[in-house]
Amino acid sequence: MKRFAAVIAAIVMIGAAVVVRNQVDDDDGGGGGGDGSPARLLCAEELEDACLEIDRERGDVEVTVEPAGVTLDFLSSAPDAQLEDLGFDGWLAPAPLSVMVNRARDFASLRPAFEDAGEPRARSPLVMALRNDRRAVLEDTAECGGSVGWACVGRLAGRTWSSIGGPAEWGTVTAGHPNPELSATGLLVMGQAASEFLGTTDFSTTGLESDPAFGSWFSRLEGSGSSPPFASVLAQNFINFNVVGTTEAEAGPALAAASGDRRDATALIYVDPVATADVVLALTTTTERGGTLEDAIDSDDADRALAENGWRVEGEDRAPGVQEIPELPDGTNLPGPVGLEALEEQWRLL
């Protein structure tokens, strides 16, 4: 049932994205440059509010938004000829999605779609969100041993709360994150969870398939299905999903805007080691407006828009709910493209 729902959601999203892309293509008429027309920025859904603000503030950028998984799926197999008329000049999305696109194209003997992405433009730590009363019960279990993380939550997922010290009316332990086939956040959270369980960010499909302990844990963790946006989970008071994974950029401002009692009842856990979603700009290999787009994303307007929408940007004030601590690591502490591809493959098999 979970897989069927994911497929339906993907079909709807892909259909909508194709319409948007075709409209952009029809309006712009190609991938040329030097005509004074705005650079065209494609943004992952996680960055929608920031990108639309950049669009409003600047006259040199036009923005299209679609789920990162739709972009990845489309570009992984698009014919080489289609690279000349993609309808956008660069993709603003968490790393390493543009690398995953190029890897898939290389495997299919196709030209790369993107140039190498530069340094992160904005960052956000990944967080676990749950109610404090549930957190207290989890911390008291032998599996968690005083510190709640994805490894122990996966071991406990599907069990009744009453069997681990909670009241029977809480039902079963349910965990979730956004659909990793559509959402960059969902894919990265899944990577963080698997890395914690395995004790490494270096793994591949072969390793995962040969590890029965991982397979059992992964099935339990993912058994509740994909969670809706954090604001919906919060509004439902974590009833359907007791533990959810997302970014601080999404959860922090939503909690800051919530009622005091709901805010006080909710915990954000920065799982150790802290992992981050790092936003990068990847220019297409065929764009002639790359310089314009880079200037726009390097601007004060873009920095302010990203920071105001919950992302950590050096030199910018933080949005309400975005913490000063923990400090962010030098790297993402997440699997690279090979590991994320392996996890996505395992998720499709559930």
Describe this structure in words.
By secondary structure, this protein is an alpha/beta fold. The protein has 2 domains: about 1-125 and about 280-325, 3-Layer(aba) Sandwich (D-Maltodextrin-Binding Protein, domain 2); about 125-270, D-Maltodextrin-Binding Protein, domain 2 (3-Layer(aba) Sandwich). It is about 45% helix and about 15% strand. α6 (about 150-155) packs across α9 (about 210-220). The longest helix is centred in the first third of the chain and has 27 residues, at about 1-30. The radius of gyration is 20 Å and the shape is globular. The termini are close together. About 45% of the residues are buried. Residues about 1-35 have low confidence and may be disordered.
Notable features of this structure?
350 residues, alpha/beta
In angstroms, what is the radius of gyration? Answer: 20 Å
Largest sheet: 8 strands, mixed
Q: Any guess at the CATH architecture of the largest domain?
A: 3-Layer(aba) Sandwich
Termini separation comes to 10 Å
Rough outline:
globular
The CATH class of the largest domain is: Alpha Beta
Domain count: the total is: 2
Structural class label? alpha/beta
- What's the CATH topology label of the largest domain? D-Maltodextrin-Binding Protein, domain 2
Instruction: Supply the CATH superfamily name of the largest domain.
Output: Periplasmic binding protein-like II
Taking pLDDT < 50 over at least 5 consecutive residues as the criterion, the unreliable ranges are: 1-33
- Taken in chain order, the helices and strands follow as HEHEHEHEHHEHHHHEHHEEHHH
Q: What is the count of helical runs?
A: 15
Note the beta-strand portion. 5-15%
Strand tally, please? 8
